[in-house]
Amino acid sequence: MAESEAWREKAARIRSVVRRVPRGQVATYGDVAEAAGEDVTARQAGRALKGAGGAARLPWHRIVAAGGRIALPGDAGLEQRMRLEAEGVPFSGRRVRIETCRWKQAD
DNA sequence: GTTATGACTCGTA
DNA sequence: ATACGAGCCATAA
Q: What is the pTM of this model?
């Protein structure tokens, strides 16, 4: 099997967290990982989103790296930035102003 | 089994 | 600001 049972559930939790991120706000991989569970790391958050984009109704574009940096390479990164700007997420150069639009679990 | 790679983060230079 | 290394973990070769 390419995906173990444990990983599949972990990935499901991660996607579920991402799905709760409201429009106009963003979260970091670390934030998603922490919200998804204590056994989840930032790398796993990114891994779970890889391939999930486009395949599911997932606001993958609201997930950025620490400090509001866009981690997604190539055209996908440009699209992410475009989508975020379309939602009213403030940018500072090539970074998101994470301090002003960072999502907290406490809605 | 090992090695390399990547949507991670942090510390140090 | 950029560059590198260490720790981290799943996949691919």
A: 0.92
